[in-house]
Design brief:
- The structure is a single chain.
- With 122 residues, the chain is of the alpha+beta class.
- The protein has one domain (2-121): Archaeosine Trna-guanine Transglycosylase, Chain: A, domain 4 (Roll), CATH 2.30.130.
- It is 20% helix and 40% strand.
- The protein has three helices and six strands, in the order βαβββααββ.
- It has helices at residues 9-17, 62-69, 77-83, and strands at residues 2-7, 22-25, 36-41, 47-60, 90-105, 119-121.
- Strands 2-5-4-3-1-6 form a six-stranded mixed sheet.
Length: 122
């Protein structure tokens, strides 16, 4: 099963160049059979630019997540903590193998009317 995630272009590019090994989320999908994340790079790119396989999903308190993943976070600790402000738990999706598409894909081509706020099952 694949999901579509909206990710800011600066973070998406770090996933595909290997400097960001975790994608952080405050909420996560319920299905346990999701194996692949399809990446929609948000404004100004507004295209689906690639995908990555999920190695594992960590769920813990933000400080514990940072302790386990911070060295490969691809973001600063300040941005990480700001993102999880007032949250007691968070998620870190571990990137197993990332692949960029030769040609970015528009959402129209996928018959998706608008970018997902959080995620969308494909």
């Amino acid at each position: 099963m694949k999901i579509l995630l909206s990710i800011k272009p600066e973070y998406a590019s770090k996933i595909f160049d290997g400097t960001k090994r975790y994608e952080y989320r405050r909420a996560i999908f319920k299905r346990t059979d999701v194996t692949t994340v399809v990446v929609y790079a948000s404004d100004p790119i507004r295209k689906v630019i690639g995908e990555f396989d999920i190695e594992e999903i960590l769920h813990d308190e933000p400080q514990a997540l940072w302790a386990r993943t911070g060295e490969q976070a691809g973001i600063t600790k300040t941005k990480f903590l700001d993102y999880f402000e007032n949250k007691t738990k968070g998620f870190a999706i571990s990137v197993k193998a990332a692949r960029t598409y030769d040609t970015p894909i528009s959402l129209d081509r996928l018959m998706v009317p608008c970018p997902p706020q959080s995620f969308m099952y494909l």
